[in-house]
Structures are given as C-alpha cells and as structure tokens.
Specification:
TIM Barrel, about 35% helix, eight-stranded mixed sheet
C-alpha cells in the first residue's frame, strides 16, 4: 500500500477518542455537554473529555471544575472524562487551578500558555523554563498545542524531550492545522515534536480543540500533512483507548 493512499485511509474517519473540547462553560464555544454527547453517539465514539478553559480566560468559573465529577462516567454508551485546559500563569510553571481540584475532581489536565491567560511573554528562554517547570510539576497530563508559538516562543526540542521524560503527552491539535490557520512554522515544529516522541518511544495525542459539535473528533486536517510531519497510526494514543485510560490512571 503506497504512502499517500495509506495516509488518506488512515485519516478518513473521525477520532474515536477526543479529550480536547469546549462547551458553553468556556464562553467562546457554542454547545452544551449533552449536545457533545449526542454528537459523539452519532459518530460512534468511545471516549470524550470535557476540557473547558481554565478560570483565567474569559472570566471562567472555578465552580464548573469543582462540580464536573457529578456528571455520570458513562452516558449513552460514551465514557465521559472530566478535564480542564489550564493556563500556565507564571515563570514558576504554576497553573490557574488548585491542586485539590486537580487531585479530587478531574480525570486529566491539559495545559499551556494562552493569550489572556495571565502569563506575560518573557522570551524563549524563560518561557521554555516556565513550561518545563509545569511539566515537571506532575500536574499536567497533556501539553496542548506545544507547536504554537505565535504569542509565546519556546524551545520545542527541549519542551518535547522533557514532556516525554515526565510522561506528559504532546498534542497534535487539529484546530490549528486547517488550511485557513496552518503556518509553515507549525509544520516545522510538529516534525521536531513527533520525531522526539518517536525517539523516546512515546505516543502523541490528537485533539480537535472543538468549540462546537461539528468540530468534535475532526482529524481531517491531518490527511494532507500526516506523512510530512511523520505522524502514523501506531504513535497516536487515541487509537488505543485502554492504553490511554491506563496512562491517565483511570481504572473504570
């Protein structure tokens, strides 16, 4: 089977696991949790994760994350995980969510710098150190969109290597790989990120960063670039739901 055809076949179906989605609680999104669940059912998905923006962005409420655990674990046959897309807020690598909530209320944490997320750009060296401290904190499961450096430049090689060393998944975020958003720098840094993950024998995670139900599980932007960035099925942890749950230390 040729490389080009293999890529098209590999990415012609929607993700069966998507841990990066935003609901009305993020205030820049357009659908409820139930609407996402209904859409996931239509797509015959196995797992979705609710990962609204941390409270530093858009005046978000910490109470949303304190009460997520009250949502059933399984709804309409879909496993529901409760998470957050947290913000690294200072050069010490601190997050905008309390440790107690992380440890007692949430299944997983995505994190990075975000525009309007309190962190002030301090240049590549300090930004890199801050991100590495966040990785080493043990509070992060997924480093979301590490290849995006429009606002906060980092050393992608160092960050990727440290994430692999501390068992933090690197995310291939498809939202920024659509033709109207994609930049050459993204491709360059994704190549570096994926190459390091492979060299460390680690998997990466694909996330849609959906802000509405029509973006949920959409991996179509990978069709044209998967081969170029070195992404193949065997290193995408979404393809192995049991392994992903084990990685997140979720037993049921």
């Amino acid at each position: 089977m040729g490389g080009k055809n293999y890529t098209l076949i590999l990415y012609s179906i929607m993700l069966k696991v998507d841990l990066h989605l935003h609901t009305l609680a993020s205030k820049d999104s357009h659908n409820t949790i139930l609407e996402y669940i209904n859409r996931a059912k239509e797509l015959k998905m196995k797992i979705i994760g609710i990962s609204d923006h941390g409270p530093s962005i858009n005046g978000g409420s910490v109470y949303h994350f304190q009460t997520l655990h009250r949502i059933p674990k399984v709804i309409k046959g879909i496993r529901i995980l409760k998470g957050i897309e947290a913000n690294i807020i200072n050069r010490k690598g601190d997050l905008d969510i309390d440790d107690e909530i992380i440890n007692q209320k949430l299944d997983y944490v995505l994190a990075n710098f975000h525009f309007n997320g309190k962190y002030i750009d301090q240049g590549e060296k300090t930004n890199t150190e801050a991100m590495i401290l966040a990785i080493k904190s043990g509070k992060i499961n997924i480093l979301c969109h590490p290849f995006l450096m429009d606002e906060f430049e980092v050393n992608i090689e160092r960050v990727s290597a440290e994430a692999c060393s501390f068992n933090v998944l690197l995310e291939v975020n498809t939202s920024y790989l659509r033709e109207n958003k994609i930049k050459k720098d993204y491709i360059r840094d994704l190549k570096k990120m994926i190459a390091i993950a492979k060299s460390k024998n680690k998997k990466v995670i694909v996330g849609s960063d959906a802000h509405n139900i029509w973006e949920l599980a959409d991996d179509s932007p990978l069709k044209k670039i998967a081969k170029e960035i070195g992404l193949d099925k065997k290193i995408i942890i979404n393809n192995y739901p049991k392994e992903l749950l084990k990685f997140l230390r979720i037993n049921n």
